[in-house]
Amino acid sequence: MKSLVIVPTYNERENLPRLLPAILGQDPSFHILVVDDNSPDGTGALVDSMAAGEPRIHAIHRDGKRGLGTAYVAGFTWALEHGFDYVFEMDADFSHDPADLPRLLDAAMRGGAAVGSRWVSGGGTQNWSLVRTLISRGGSLYAKLILGVPIDDLTSGFKCFASYVLRDLNFGDIHSNGYAFQVEVNYRCHRLGYKIEQVPIVFVDRRVGKSKMSPWIVVEAMGVVWKLRLYGVSGDWASAKYSKIPPA
């Protein structure tokens, strides 16, 4: 059994020399795929140099900053093409603890998918302001109530999927990017009938570098929630030709 940890990057050169060995140290079956969006700080070149000495490190180099959702879709596609059994999403800034990867894997092996949750018993955050906590927790509750998805942390970016779940997702129909991507993928998995296990995690604010969070990310996620509620998971959002599908 092989597992792939997908790590999207944009200017993460300072974190990767510590993060990638920490991931590989969790299990000998773990591989890493860094999806770099032409980082100006040389992240891509660093990954190539690390990969030269470690066959479990791989890279996709993209020609510009295209966003989190498209990075994960590119990683999912690569994982399925290369025969991986389980696939993780993970941030590059140590906000997700590599030591939690085996717990996510165990949970995904039970249900097909697992999400690291800040908002279940045993989970939490460190170094967050009250405002950020309210926005994140309130946003997840908002999405959960509108979409009817039994997950407490719908915007979490720390996940694990079995390959058969990813094969059931139609990547071409995923229209959102940024953190709204996480909401949409959770909703699609739920609509396909997969149980998404919730694993408590403690999310630690990034140690070095600049946060990618912005007000636009929150606005986009709110809009995607209503598009999914009204139009389901099929149709072309861009052309507004939808077939209404009531939530399950």
Describe this structure in words.
The chain is of the alpha/beta class and 248 residues long. The chain has a single domain (3-231), classed as Spore Coat Polysaccharide Biosynthesis Protein SpsA, Chain A. It is built from eight helices and nine strands. The chain has helices spanning 16-24, 43-52, 68-81, 101-111, 130-147, 163-168, 180-191, 215-231; strands at 3-9, 30-36, 57-61, 86-89, 112-117, 124-126, 159-162, 195-200, 202-204. The strands form two sheets. It has a seven-stranded mixed beta sheet, with helices on both faces. A two-stranded parallel sheet has the order 6-9. The longest helix has 18 residues, at 130-147.
The main β sheet shows up as:
7 strands, mixed
N-end to C-end Cα span: 33 Å
Spans of at least 5 consecutive residues with low confidence:
236-248
Number of helices: 8
The overall strand count is 9
Order of helices and strands: EHEHEHEHEEHEHHEEH
Average pLDDT level: 87
The CATH class name reads: Alpha Beta
CATH architecture: Alpha-Beta Complex
Strand content: 15-25%
Helical amount:
25-40%
